[in-house]
Amino acid sequence: MVTYTAPLDDIRFALNDLWGYDQTVAPLPGCEDATSDVVDAVLEEAAKLCVNELLPLNRSGDEEGCTFENGVVRTPKGFKEAYTAFIEGGWAGLSADPEYGGQGLPKTVQFIVEELICSTNLSLGIYPGLSHGAYNALELYGNDALKALFLPKLSEGTWSGTMCLTEPHCGTDLGLIRTKAIPNGATGPDGEMAYKITGTKIFISAGEHDLTENILHLVLAKLPDAPPGAKGISLFLAPKFITKSDGTLGPRNGVACGSIEHKMGIKASATCVMNFDEAEGYLVGKPHGGLRAMFAMMNTARLAVGIQGLGLAETAYQSAVAYAKERTQGRSLKGAKHPDKPADPIIVHPDVRKMLLTMRAQIEGCRALAAWIGMAVDVAERHPDEAKRQEADDLVALMTPIIKAYFTDVGFEVTNLGMQVFGGHGYIREHGMEQLVRDARIAQLYEGTNGIQALDLVGRKLPQGTGRLLRRFFHPVLAFIEDNQTNADLADYVLPLAKAFGRLQQATGWVAQQGLRDPEEAGAAASDYLRLFALTALAYTWARTAQVVLAIPEAERQAFHKAKLSTARFYMTRLLPQTSSLFAMINSGAKPVMETEEAWF
Ligand SMILES: Cc1cc2nc3c(=O)[nH]c(=O)nc-3n(C[C@H](O)[C@H](O)[C@H](O)COP(=O)(O)OP(=O)(O)OC[C@H]3O[C@@H](n4cnc5c(N)ncnc54)[C@H](O)[C@@H]3O)c2cc1C
Asked: Is residue 447 annotated as a catalytic residue, yes or no?
């Protein structure tokens, strides 16, 4: 069994001490009641739900998995009850619009609650996670009638949602989809033309299950007059049960689960082949406007997937710390630390400490970054000043591929380190560490692989607005460095940050220039560049953390604060230097990657 307590102290630190939640988010229109005290109470409740209801089902859910029989998918024992407790607590509509029955809490709170859910039961969390993505797409692009009909059910959680994008022959390149939509000659419950959707979608998370009364599939398909490629994609909503205009359920629609996948991890999350056979569907957004709507759906989903990595990493870290303090093997290199015992606990060994600190520094850095960007999502949505909204939106757009890719890489690396701390016992199922590794692996793949995130960063986000997005990150970091570079107390933190930032600036110039000349240069640099960027962003959060802690008089610093400083120093000295090798790798260019001819492989 893993060890887990919700890291509420660290969350409070990130929200309040580091980024000033009460000055940034609480004053936004609609957030007036969501002060830090209220948020704190919400998080306490979320922590109880996660620890008491979700965590106990994590391992049994993994052992049992989902089952498929005669078109029916069953989730593991206890999942239905836990999901019911989840929706009865109002968690499904936490950040949904009160107009549609939601609680209207800031997205910042939503992201944090998602971290706790992912730490305790990622498989279960995927069901409401998908509904959340569907809610966002419908809220942004659906017509008023569709919104009135479906959004309250999604925010209540009695109906769930899916994202049906992938087909057997295409995942990344969705321009290739073959699913068709043709007008069916009747009107839908929104009074608009309904369509018949036909095609096969694979790998559909939560495509079929027994948790909700109805499932709303958001499906990418092509209309008969669709232009070729990605410009010809449209988005449709096809419910499992046809929904009448009064909201009552009609007959079963022409969409069914053909089978479920047998996977490496997240075994209690049903991953389905979905067959659409003239299923009734309703257009969401404009004809051929599916790509935009899809990005709306995917952007929030990408941040949420990043959070999955963070959540799993936290559980691995806490479990590894507990084990390292308990497991006795060998003696400290400087002589016995616990002479009363036959051996010292393994936490005395430098190598074990290095693993634990790597885990901790990555997790807390990622959490701080997530809090900053989560708050920017709220500013982007709610700030009364359009310029501020745009600024925040730019920052979110820039950081989304970084959070998705880097956090999920961290999720896999950190869960692996957790397993390593357990030695051979980490490989044995009963400790739960190998499940964390298996569960973490998928997040690097879905919602666009991490390689694709890196291409999004260098190909779309860097050039956008001639570097406007980039400046939303560069300017505050540069200002921080300039303001603090002569502060001797902060030198251990600001100087390494300044060096890494210099590398990032140079690498950015290199990628932009070389990429213009030859796109393969940008392609070959992309994933190293994303990692260099992420490491620098985490360095910024760690330097700010040090600044906050150093402002507290030394005598008043708690163990929590002292640990923050020592972890910050570890990050700067033991992890951030990776930026140097990444910089060298980027500068070596595309030739070493591309000169090997296809036939030589
Ligand atoms: C458990 C699970 C759940 C999923 N849930 C959903 C879901 O709910 N809805 C849904 O629609 N899909 C879902 N997916 C599908 C998932 O999003 C895709 O698998 C993923 O986007 C990658 O697509 P692919 O598997 O076809 O890989 P491919 O697109 O075939 O890619 C294979 C490799 O080539 C690389 N590659 C491809 N194109 C390029 C390029 N242009 N440049 C550089 N590298 C490239 C990729 O990075 C990857 O490494 C799920 C998948 C799994 C396994």
From this structure: yes
